[in-house]
Amino acid sequence: MTTDQKIWANSGDSHLMEPHDIFRENLPPRFADRMPRGVLDEDGQFETISVDGQEFRRKVPFAKRPMVDPETGRGVFERAPGSNDMRLRIKDLNQEGVWGELVYTSIGMWMHSMRDPLLMLAGCEVINDWAIEYQRFSSRYVCTAMIPTLSLETALSEVERSADMGFKIAMLPTSPTLAGPNWNKDDWHPLWALLAETGMHVGFHAGSDPHEADTFNGTYHRGPGGHLLNYYEASYHMQLAAAKLVASGVFERHPTLKCVVSEGGATWVPFMADRLDEAYRQHVNQVWPKFNRLPSEYLFENVYASFQHDRSAPQALVAMGYRNVCWGSDYPHLEGTFGHTQETLHGLVDNLTAAQRDRILKGAFQELFPHVPPPPEDGTEPPEGGA
User: Fold this and answer.
1) Where are the domains of the chain?
2) In angstroms, what CA-CA distances link 133 with 37, 139, 387?
3) Residue in 288, 278, 328, 322 with CA at minimum distance from that of residue 303
């Protein structure tokens, strides 16, 4: 492949940018006032996130000064032209060579720090009602359904509703709550059974863990190296969530259920497979539940990992035999590849075989979401409309 030939890829990690008034337009004030919202300081250096009566203050992770939104008077950062427009977004994707997208929310990820189950359900319903319109507009958008996990009842209710609406994947936080039973507990058996029954997959994304304002303080780690440690730890939470599903036998009971771990790299999967197999073989008397196969087989078959810039990620497939590697653009977030997607893709896959390249950029995604039409051939332009 020549370095000037256009590469087409599916994205296993993209985002929607919720309208600033999405909750106020759809909920009574007593509910809307408690929904997640972010406000930038005047100098654009810090942001305060308000969630259900809590406030989380963090340093803004971008080096740009904000512009002023003429409608809201608040600071906003420059983003891709199609950030908030489902039609312009298609143009951005065509320009970058991105075809299908697995699309998560943005401010909605803070929903997992709520403390009121019915309030969380109301917020998830609002976001899902809005997000499904993207998916109805174009089959290239695969939107994740926000699932409220503060109670099993609300989770099951929204899975049923979102499946009926046409969602193909449920976004879950890396831990369901701060204090309740975690994903490996029997309490969640009905959730996995319902997801498998409806054909919906599970999506875990970095930064979706629940937080308490009293212990947040903008970071997990402070001092020298704090930011690097925080960034690394965000990936670890997702890895552990996937391991809980494997180790507790979720995929043994529901072999058709798939899990996507987005924006967390891919080379951790073969390493985790080795560690889980080692424990299963060498400590079998202490392992429960027992499986019909090794943990690595469930991990390699049921877990998909999306990476962005990681140079090592393709080697998880090439050298380590893990086929469920999927690239992701992180569009339209500023740390994503918008504006340099083609340069990034060529740097990652030009040295791979055609089969390896197609699996990472197209095949793994199409396996999960076969309803999405295939991308154009490399080097070609999309059909008229591109949707």
Assistant:
1) 84-368
2) 22, 11, 14
3) 322
In the beta sheet, which residues pair with residue 103? 14, 143
* pTM score, whole prediction: 0.92
Strands of the 141-146 sheet, one edge to the other? 9-15, 98-104, 141-146, 169-171, 201-205, 259-262, 303-307, 325-327
Q: How far is it, in rounded angstroms, from Cα 144 to Cα 200?
A: 10
CATH class of the structural domain 84-368 = alpha beta
pLDDT along the chain (387 residues), means of 10: 87 95 95 91 80 83 46 52 92 97 94 93 97 97 97 98 98 92 97 98 91 62 81 86 97 98 96 97 91 96 97 97 98 91 97 97 98 93 73
Distance CA 92, CA 90 (A): 5
CA torsion through residues 206, 207, 208, 212, sign: positive
